[in-house]
Amino acid sequence: MKGLPEERAVMLAEYIVEHEATVRRAAQVFHISKSTVHKDVAERLRYISPGLFTQAQAVLQQNKAQRHIRGGLATKQKYAKQKCK
How far is the C-alpha of 13 from the C-alpha of 38, rounded, in Å? Predict the structure, then answer.
């Protein structure tokens, strides 16, 4: 998804807020790197749309707080699959 960084930042933030997506998931959907998503949402968006910036940051903070739980579940599933073999 090439184009103007300002437009991309708004589209990314809208997607993240609407789907409660992680940076990684947004990067997959828009076919860009995680660092680009982070730069757009954390830096550029602040000046473009402060209200949307606040909403996106709230979702990203929630995802950050929950990531250790998702990681633990992924590890649990991995070893459960190995045990069945």
Answer: 10
What pLDDT is stored for residue 2 in this prediction? 61
Output the six-digit token pair for 6. 């300002």
Residue owning tokens 């757009």:
40
Residue 25's contacts (CB-CB under 8 Å, 6 or more residues apart) are 19
Of the candidates 68, 1, 62, the residue with the CA atom closest to the CA atom of residue 37: 1
DSSP H/E element including 9 = helix 5-19
The residue-averaged pLDDT of 51-63 equals 93
Q: Full-prediction pTM beyond 0.70?
A: yes
Ordered by start, the domain boundaries in the chain are 5-84
Spatial separation of the C-alpha atoms in residues 4 and 16, rounded to whole Å: 18
